[in-house]
């Protein structure tokens, strides 16, 4: 889409929509729901689990809204059989979840926690018994605290630690898990966790962020190489947070500012994998990453993934700002632009996913794209045993419409996972933003399928 000069016209809806049916996506399209270990499992200190950086961060006062934490979360660790049965009753064929590193290796490396292995074996087996395919993410932000104490992602030793962890997972679960994702959104866990300090481990500044970026990018490829060498038949991917970026106005300054934001949000972790290197021409302040590059790293950053997972929630509109250090760019919030937004203050902009799919389809060596997360948080309420969430139904339908539109125009997309199956611990925001298509009463742990869950079920049943 071409950018426009005023906020009102930026949000023009597109009316050329093909009819939204599952059949229209074709038989080879993968449908599912997504979750992450720390956000749902609970059982934070039982059955031999070691502490993760999120256990430690959320225990620090004032780090998470209302001092919420994931100690119990959705109690998925104990309730997974019922939850998987609920998932099956909703005709959901694929379940994306992550493994908790410190449940498997309490110290991050070394001693294996057999109770952790047993738990994931039971979970995976139960998925398969119910005809649900497990899609496993190795790392969704919950680094073992013991490794953070040794420098975490800012320490280059992460590569060896991560390889050991990946090898353990491949050995333990690879006979049954055929779809793997190495990292979840490296931009977010390095940016929010090591630069802004608003996520675990709460570190700030370039000294932590820049090496963390480089080591995460190296681990992305190193983890994939381990999985593929041990499981040659498996499909190995990794996931990226992506937002369609536009300049607020068609001025040279706004256009250049938008280019910088796009490089940071959408290209920094992907392009080195594809052999294009870090996008340093558009992101001059990241040139300090060269300090952490060792001979041979450029090769080590590359990997031919079987698929790339893109995760999209919103669009960013960017304005040049002289005063903003390094980026010289500001994001113009949806509220200022008078456009619809979710409870996260993220703009609802379905066309964004359409543009992203075309953008990523243009890279030569991405064989396949899956949307491994898309969804929205609204203030859902349980009333008379029901949860009506028409805004989420509308959100999902309109985003899917744009996915279909892109696919019919030749974009290389072949899967879609709703974030999220159940309401869960939304990181620094605590439990208030509800992303689930299944409502969780966090007092009673009662589950209630929302209207959006019923809609997805019907859609999947064709
Ligand atoms: C993350 C999820 C998170 C969701 C909504 C993604 O960035 O992978 O863990 O809950 O967005 O914020």
UniProtKB/TrEMBL annotation:
Q: Which residues form a coiled coil?
A: none
Which InterPro entries does this UniProt record tie to the protein?
Answer: GH, GH_1_N_CS, Glyco_hydro_1, Glyco_hydro_1_AS, Glyco_hydro_1_beta-glucosidase
The organism's place on the tree of life at top rank: Bacteria
This enzyme's EC code(s)? 3.2.1.21
UniProt entry tagged with the keyword S-adenosyl-L-methionine? no
The protein's annotated catalytic reaction(s) are: Hydrolysis of terminal, non-reducing beta-D-glucosyl residues with release of beta-D-glucose
Keyword Hydrolase in record: yes
Q: Where is the composition biased (Polar residues)?
A: 1-20
Q: Could you tell me the keywords of this UniProt record?
A: Carbohydrate metabolism, Cellulose degradation, Glycosidase, Hydrolase, Polysaccharide degradation
What's an example of a GO molecular-function annotation for this chain? beta-glucosidase activity
Spell out the residue ranges making up region: Disordered. 1-21
Q: What residues form the catalytic site here?
A: 373 (nucleophile)
Annotated Gene3D superfamilies: Glycosidases (3.20.20.80)
Q: Which family does it belong to?
A: Belongs to the glycosyl hydrolase 1 family.
Name under which the protein is recorded: Beta-glucosidase
In its UniProt entry, the species of origin is given as: Pontibacter rugosus
Q: What is the lineage of its organism?
A: Bacteria, Pseudomonadati, Bacteroidota, Cytophagia, Cytophagales
């Amino acid at each position: 889409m071409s950018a426009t000069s005023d906020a009102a016209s930026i949000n023009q809806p597109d009316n050329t929509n093909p009819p939204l049916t599952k059949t229209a996506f074709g038989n080879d399209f993968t449908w599912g729901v997504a979750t992450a270990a720390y956000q749902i499992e609970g059982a934070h200190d039982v059955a031999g689990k070691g502490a993760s950086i999120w256990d430690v961060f959320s225990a620090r006062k004032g780090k998470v809204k209302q001092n919420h934490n994931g100690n119990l979360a959705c109690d998925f660790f104990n309730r997974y059989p019922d939850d998987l049965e609920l998932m099956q009753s909703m005709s959901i064929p694929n379940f994306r979840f992550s493994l908790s590193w410190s449940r498997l290796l309490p110290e991050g490396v070394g001693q294996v926690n057999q109770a952790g292995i047993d738990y994931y074996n039971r979970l995976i087996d139960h998925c398969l018994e119910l005809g649900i395919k497990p899609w496993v993410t190795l790392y969704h932000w919950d680094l073992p605290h013991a490794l953070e104490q040794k420098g975490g992602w800012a320490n280059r030793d992460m590569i060896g630690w991560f390889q050991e962890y990946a090898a353990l997972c491949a050995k333990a679960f690879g006979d049954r898990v055929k779809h793997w994702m190495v990292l979840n959104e490296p931009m977010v866990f390095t940016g929010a966790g090591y630069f802004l300090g608003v996520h675990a481990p709460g570190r700030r500044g370039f000294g932590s962020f820049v090496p963390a970026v480089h080591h995460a990018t190296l681990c992305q490829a190193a983890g994939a190489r381990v999985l593929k060498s041990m499981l040659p038949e498996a499909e190995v991917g990794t996931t990226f947070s992506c937002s369609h970026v536009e300049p607020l106005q068609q001025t040279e300054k706004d256009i250049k500012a938008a280019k910088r934001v796009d490089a940071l949000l959408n290209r920094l972790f992907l392009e080195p994998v594809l052999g294009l290197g870090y996008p340093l021409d558009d992101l001059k302040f990241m040139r300090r990453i060269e300090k952490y590059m060792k001979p041979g790293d450029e090769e080590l950053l590359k990997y031919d993934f079987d698929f790339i997972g893109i995760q999209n929630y919103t669009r960013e509109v960017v304005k040049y700002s002289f005063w903003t250090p390094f980026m010289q760019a500001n994001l113009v919030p949806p509220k200022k632009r008078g456009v619809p937004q979710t409870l996260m203050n993220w703009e609802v902009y379905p066309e964004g996913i359409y543009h992203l799919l075309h953008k990523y389809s243009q890279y030569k060596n991405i064989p396949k794209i899956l949307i491994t997360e898309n969804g929205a948080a609204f203030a859902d309420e349980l009333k008379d045993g029901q949860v009506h969430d028409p805004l989420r139904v509308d959100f999902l339908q309109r985003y899917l419409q744009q996915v279909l539109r892109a696919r019919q125009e030749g974009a290389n997309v072949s899967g879609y996972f709703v974030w999220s199956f159940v309401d869960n611990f939304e990181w620094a925001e605590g439990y208030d933003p509800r992303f689930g298509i299944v409502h969780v009463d966090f007092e009673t742990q009662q589950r209630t399928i929302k209207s959006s869950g019923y809609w997805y079920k019907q859609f999947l049943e064709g």
